[in-house]
Amino acid sequence: MTSPSIVWFRDDLRLADNPALRAAVERGEPVIAVYVLDEESPEFRSLGGAARWWLHHSLVSLRDRVIERGGAFVLRRGAAASAIAELVAQTGAGAVFWNRRYGGPQRDVDTQIKTSLREGGVEVRSFAASLLFEPWTVRTGGGTHFSVFTPFWRACLALPAPRAPLPEPRELRGPTRVPASDELDRWSLLPSRPDWAAGLRETWEPGEPAARARLRSFLREDLRGYDTTRDEPAAGNTSLLSPRLRWGELSPFTVWHAATEHEGAGRFLSEIGWREFAWHTLFHFPQLATRNLRPEFDAFPWPRLQPTHLAAWQRGETGIPLVDAGMRELWHTGFMHNRVRMVTASFLIKNLLVDWRRGEEWFWDTLVDADDAANSFNWQWVAGSGADAAPYFRVFNPELQAKKFDRDGHYIREWARDAPTEPIVDLGETRKAALAAYEQMRRAR
Ligand SMILES: Cc1cc2nc3c(=O)[nH]c(=O)nc-3n(C[C@H](O)[C@H](O)[C@H](O)COP(=O)(O)OP(=O)(O)OC[C@H]3O[C@@H](n4cnc5c(N)ncnc54)[C@H](O)[C@@H]3O)c2cc1C
Description:
By secondary structure, the protein is an alpha/beta fold. The chain folds into three domains: about 1-130, Rossmann fold (3-Layer(aba) Sandwich), CATH 3.40.50.620; about 130-165 and about 210-285, Serine Threonine Protein Phosphatase 5, Tetratricopeptide repeat (Alpha Horseshoe); about 295-440, DNA Cyclobutane Dipyrimidine Photolyase, subunit A, domain 3, CATH 1.10.579.10. It is about 50% helix and about 5% strand. Strand 4, helix 4 and strand 5 form a beta-alpha-beta unit. Helix 3 (about 80-90) runs parallel beside helix 4 (about 105-120), helix 12 crosses helix 17 (about 410-415) and helix 13 (about 340-350) crosses helix 15. The N and C termini lie far apart (about 65 Å).
């Protein structure tokens, strides 16, 4: 009798540097890989449209690679606690391995599953694979967590260096009887009526092999100019690794070790540090997507939502060229350059006076890299309510930002050539209104 090992894949859709997979292989029993589409566990947020598109293709790639190596790949849908328990019962599995997640509801589910499987005599082990530093290991001198990035990153860098990445297993041995699996196509992760994903298909190739190729080409060709031009959307020399890290097609350990072999990677690695900081912040404040990290912002006097303003922003029809270019890039490709994310977010929050949560929801639905930590963390950063946030009175002026970071107008011409030219609001007047609202909030304290 065999007692297979189940590897539960979640946000780690890769074979290389996958400690859970490695543990399963080392256990020596047949390996069953499973992915559970869980939209039912309490407080789990449904994936946005662009994320579902990415997930579909990344799962196809992972499934093919697992099967090629001789393993079994199973898809299940439903609350993870019952889906995993059912798979264990059906296969007689003796062990379940996974890489850790750091969101509040996900941790609750994982703890519950770990406890109940162990009570049933099943071996369960979880591993660090998605963050370079475990959130509970990075502490201030006073034993609390950091709320400012620079000392946070300094403290991380003073810890033992991130471990070396693990190699990809060459062979996987599956069970003789492969358990039943859902059909991926029946999950309807891809849009059909209408099929709005043409731009995503043109732009991206999800999956681990393409992720590794992009890491190599970024380090070889783009890293050199990264420090000086990373803020220029037309330069096209940032890594574009965010969806790869979001879906775990690459591990941060792989990125870290590959980058540190190159001179001048410090600035790039500190961006990986911001990713860590966002996740650590979420770990310590699980309501990051819905509640102001700084509670004084609960008194912010948001005016009644003007749906026409929100719609103009979403469609890239604000009449402000850099904002419209960014929103159109997002709609077409599922991605937007970081500088432009900051400008479009600031415009929504401070010039249109729309609550940051409405913008976060739109990005959640349209970004291929939307994740539980980075999206809400950065929206709160722009809003002034988050960790180490930009001061509220720093209202980006999209026209000056365009002059500075899109000097020749390449980016705006590429994305906003036929956008409206009449601004829907006056930048100066709305800036004054935002600062007045902020003063009102401060007086309310
Ligand atoms: C309003 C807003 C929303 C955002 N939403 C997301 C999101 O949902 N998912 C996401 O991954 N990033 C988000 N970001 C951060 C950032 O814009 C993207 O990570 C970056 O644009 C991805 O491009 P890149 O991979 O070429 O970045 P690079 O400049 O090459 O950076 C390397 C990696 O560092 C990480 N990183 C860089 N900047 C940040 C940052 N500010 N916060 C956290 N991680 C960072 C990413 O993993 C990125 O891939 C958001 C930023 C803003 C202002």
